[in-house]
Amino acid sequence: MVTFIVSLVVLVLGYFIYGKVVEKIFKPDNRETPAVRINDGVDYLVLPSWKVFMIQFLNIAGTGPIFGAIMGMWFGPSAYLWIVFGCIFAGATHDYFSGMLSMRYDGCGLPGLIGHFLGNKVKQVMLVFCVFLLVMVGVVFVYSPAIILGDIWANRILWIFVIFIYYIIATLLPIDKIIGKIYPLFAFSLLFMAAALMIGLFIKHPQLPELWDGLDNLGAEKFGMTNSIFPALFITIACGAISGFHATQSPLMSRCLKSEKMGRPVFYGAMITEGVVALIWATVSSYFFFYDGWKEVAPADLLIQYEQSGKTLIQFFDAPTVVKLVCNSWLGALGGVLALLGVVAAPITSGDTAFRSARLIIAEFLHIKQRSMIKRLVVAIPIFAASIAFLFWQIENPDGFNTIWQYFGWSNQTLSVFTLWAITVYLVHEKKPYIVTLIPAVFMTVVCITFILVSKNGFGIPMEIGYGIAGAIMVLSFVWFFIWKTKNKGVR
Fold first, then answer.
1. How many domains does the structure of the chain reveal?
2. Is 368 among the domain residues?
3. Which end of the chain has fewer CB atoms within 10 angstroms, the N or the C?
4. Where is this protein found (predicted)?
5. CB 313 within 8 A of CB 153
């Protein structure tokens, strides 16, 4: 438990120490925010700061810090390092600057921000990239909760229809009508579940892997995993460390804050909170998988099914199953309810804000004001039509969910690369310490390029060649940046 406790303390200190450094670099002031200046009663309106924090947390979290942390911990204790340092120095910094820059630029969406700093051609690419990513998120988070609900009552097709109707309503209504009312409740449920599990860890004090047990891929020996830690770990654990999807969500809340000075608690703080949730679930799952905790929580009939299935441990006890078993066993009846919220309500609340973000990004690009319901429908109908096509494809293809999710993971982290580079350019123009985002930008560039080169879903080239190419691109990234910086010296 030593590694877990130290990691938890470092995450909290990261908010108070490094979060303050990042805030001083940006220098929030007392200017009027878009929520006050533009207020349209639909997307731009002032909400209480605590409510904005809870909505931001749930927007960026969903099941990401749960499922990603569980799967990432298959690699072993190295996941602790990525969650802690990735969250403090990359993810929270990424979320803070993307939210604050959006606030400074009238609540501008991510493609607009990227275009402002990286050029109009990049903006156009990012517009398509962002909308495609957000539609994928919405589709994934229609199908996955529908499968779970279909196992409880009725069938998944009915639940797909019900969830999709909810998405349409939540996307079109003013943000305070549904999202502002129910999101804080679901966010509290996720936080309560994580806190209860952390208490359970301290009470049970189970055997857990520590950093000094080694940073190699522990799953390779126990589960026969073939993926290398680099880059697979850094794609698998996204929402608990850094996620490009967050930069599409931060502008939603940048339109609802009354003061820029609430940026650190809302944007940086929500990401640190998500890191804590990921840390807890990573620790719980390490006991579940590495020290046979699954034998403690799984009922006898399920253990028999596992023995007869011929599947490996991680194939049979996937992330949603781990959540349900642990919550039911450690937290009792209340845990069952919380588990249901965690694997059903949380993804649904990520899906509706994904569609909402897509609507606002397209409306901003086409210069269509969103005060009128008719104009919101004009933008939203094509988005939902494309989503329905994705849904039918997913239903018809048995492995459709896994295929979309794998490409979503890479696309998600690639989006963070463009966001970090855009922030770095902003910091250079403003003559501010750009190193805080340059290092994460280069690192994530190398991660994403390496993954697409060596992954079987990418080019599938030999690992050694992929590493060599990625290393060369890392050097070129630094060279390109400093050449550009020299040419643009003094430009603002």
1. 1
2. yes
3. C
4. Cell membrane
5. no
Has residue 14 got a pLDDT over 60?
yes
Assess whether pLDDT exceeds 80 at residue 492. no
Work out the average pLDDT over 386-397: 78
Residue 488 lies in a domain: no
Q: What is the pTM of this model?
A: 0.92
**Cα dihedral sign, 62-66-71-72:** positive
295, two tokens: 């034998």
| Whether 251 contacts 99, CB under 8 Å | yes
Residue 438 lies in a domain: no
For residue 175, what is the domain's CATH number?
1.20.1740.10
Q: Is residue 487 part of a domain?
A: no
Query: Domain range for residue 178?
Result: 1-298+320-417
**Of the listed ranges 93-97, 256-260, 309-313, the one predicted with least confidence:** 309-313
